[in-house]
Amino acid sequence: MPHTAATRGYTTPDAINEFFDPHISGVRDPLQLPDIKPAIARLHRAIESGEKFLVFGDYDVDGITSTTLLVRALRALKANVSYQIPERADGYGLSVAVVEKAATDGHSLILTADCGITAHEPVRRARELGIDVIITDHHDPGATLPDALAVINPKRADSSYGFRELCGCGVAFKVMQAYMSEHCPRHADSFSDKFIELAGLAAIADCVPLVDENRFLAREALRHLATTNKLGLQALIKVSRVKITGDSLSGRNVSFSLAPRLNAAGRVDSAQKSLALLMSSDKAECEALAEELEEHNRLRQETTNRIMDEARAMVLEEVDLTRDFVIVVAGAGWPKGIVGLVASRLVERYARPALVLGIEDGKAHGSGRSIADFNLHSMLEHARPLLTSGGGHAAACGLSLDATNLADFRAQVLQYAATQLSMDDLVPIVEADCEVAGGDLTPQVARDLEKLEPCGNGNPEALLMMRRARIIETRAIGANGDHVKWQLFADGRRFDAVWWRPGERGFHYRGGQEIDLCFVPQLNHWNGNTTLQLIIKDARLS
Q: How many Å apart are CA 503 and CA 483, to the nearest integer?
């Protein structure tokens, strides 16, 4: 295999073996999470006394899976628990209105899922109304924590957990794992078997680093998903046309098939449908909901392409790419659920952080995506006086502000970015793991590299480099012609290669040219045949 775990920092035999086969000994003790003991004591009291309480989550995949995991696990323990997630139009996170409605409905406890770390005013109001709040979250805390009964977040400055990068559903999983070990130890293993697939799916979907405990959770999840008995996940896998080879799904299956469909409903309609899919135990209902998500995903793709075209035109007209270190664009009629996807594409195309905002009724609501050297959470803190809300972490954020403040906001962002970045930071660098010749590439190489799975943030796919391959044929593919398919010739062999969304530069190459390319080798399963395909990440003339 032309790549080893050693190049990723795993240099001892034990570390390498653990990387390739993460096992239960690598799972950390959930009782080391901050505030975990008062949290599970309060949950136990609520369950035993039959108190009405509320799980309040978020509308993305991480929030939906967190909510599903907590509610299904608590109901299995006979808890009197209800649940709620907001719509994107409601805004992110726990609100005073939610707290007051919970009080009216007779809830004495609120348990958050993937949110709440900045909910100071809602938690204060809950205390006034006699409601206890337990926060489970993984987003970056502010300078002070909400005055809740418990704030469980591995990113707390005083956390002794030893790993900061759990996703929201990972935190929820650990909370219930702690509860089971304390109060239902005989069923602790069956709990893990039943719910680990949700925690690992969320880790891949939420782009947390797939290292340490996240690697174990994600790897186990992919194995469990291949034979899941959850009807909603079965229906989602079927409608996504995911092909299960061997005994496991791939991280790519989650990132590009399952997660986008779970997110699509909240982007173009209502996230309640994705939550209903994961909560349902009715096969016909699950199949109908999965078909709806498929249609929502198609609409999401169309809308994203349209907004991207408008945003690109705006960049060319309004942004000075020789001077502006961050792209800030805003447009009327840009849906809240789509702007984050467009921001990601702008980062890919222009190699700099991007903030994309939709304007409606005098308000601007948007999302940001970043590059490695720019912390969006710190940027939001710098611009906080101009915002009505905002939160997130280094790589991604959400924000809202009055549309009249957009010009001032853009000026502050650009001013701040100029102190943090230089033009050298905006030069995209593609680093290959190793160089190969055409004669080295076989289907077996791709199979060997699959042992690196699950791949994603913190554990990228192995990237290979090949020099002086000749283009035999090039053509545009995809519904909008956004992708390029090449046939290449190297070392006396032909290879099929695909470059997804390369932008203008991918269409500059012509047949007969010799190129150097960076790529990921993949197995393409089609019509009963398995062939080697090169997924291009970058290219240049030889």
A: 8
**H helices within 184-282, ranges in order?**
188-205, 212-225, 231-239, 251-253, 259-268, 272-279
- The residue count of the chain comes to 542
Name the residue among 126, 123, 130, 82 with its Cα closest to residue 100: 126
Which residues does residue 470 pair with via DSSP β-bridges, in sequence order?
489, 514
Got the DSSP string for 270-298? -THHHHHHHH---HHHHHHHHHHHHHHHH
pLDDT of residue 3: 41
The strand order across the sheet containing 132-136 reads 80-84, 52-56, 109-112, 132-136, 150-152
CA dist., res. 463 & res. 479, Å (int) = 27
Tell me the one-letter amino acid at 312: R
Q: Which pair of tokens denotes residue 76?
A: 């299995």
Is the dihedral angle over the CA atoms 537, 540, 541, 542 positive or is it negative? negative
The HSE-up count of residue 383 (CA atoms within 13 Å, CB side) is 30
What does the angle CA 433 – CA 439 – CA 444 come to, to the nearest 5 degrees? 70
Here the tokens at position 169 are: 């559903």
- Going by C-alpha positions, the residue among 279, 165, 241, 253 that lies closest to residue 201 is 253
Mean pLDDT of the chain: 92
* Phi, psi (rounded to 5 degrees) for 528: 80, 0
User: CA-CA distance, 299 to 314, in Å (whole number)?
Assistant: 23
In the structure encoding, which two tokens stand for residue 117, read together?
């770390």
Coil, strand or helix at 332: strand
The answer to whether the CB of 356 falls within 8 A of the CB of 343 is yes
Structure tokens at 64: 């939906």
Query: Which one-letter amino acid corresponds to residue 432?
Result: A
Alpha-carbon span 176 to 67, nearest angstrom: 12
Task: Tell me how far apart the alpha carbons of residues 406 and 8 are, in angstroms, rounded to a whole number.
Answer: 42
CA separation for the pair 450, 464 (Å, rounded): 14
Contact assessment for residue 286 and residue 275, using Cβ atoms and an 8 Å cutoff: no
Instruction: Give 244's contacts (C-beta < 8 A, 6+ positions apart).
Output: 226, 237
Tokens in use for 383?
């611009």
What do you get for the CA distance between the two ends of the chain, in Å?
26
Compute the 3-state secondary structure of the chain and give helix, strand, coil in percent, each to the nearest 5: 45, 20, 30
Domains delineated in the chain:
5-225 (3.90.1640.30), 226-303 (no CATH), 319-426 (3.10.310.30), 434-541 (2.40.50.460)
Where do we find the tokens 């909910």?
119
Cis bond before residue 454 (omega within 30° of 0): yes
Which region, left, alpha or beta, applies to residue 456 given φ > 0 means left and ψ of -120 to 50 means alpha? left
pLDDT for the residue numbered 2: 38
33, 476 Cβ separation under 8 angstroms: no
Separation of alpha carbons 499 and 441, rounded Å: 18
Sheet holding 396-402, edge to edge: 327-332, 354-360, 363-369, 396-402, 389-392
**Tokens in use for 324?**
């502006």
Q: Which residues of the chain have pLDDT under 70?
A: 1-7, 23-26
Strand partners, 525: 530
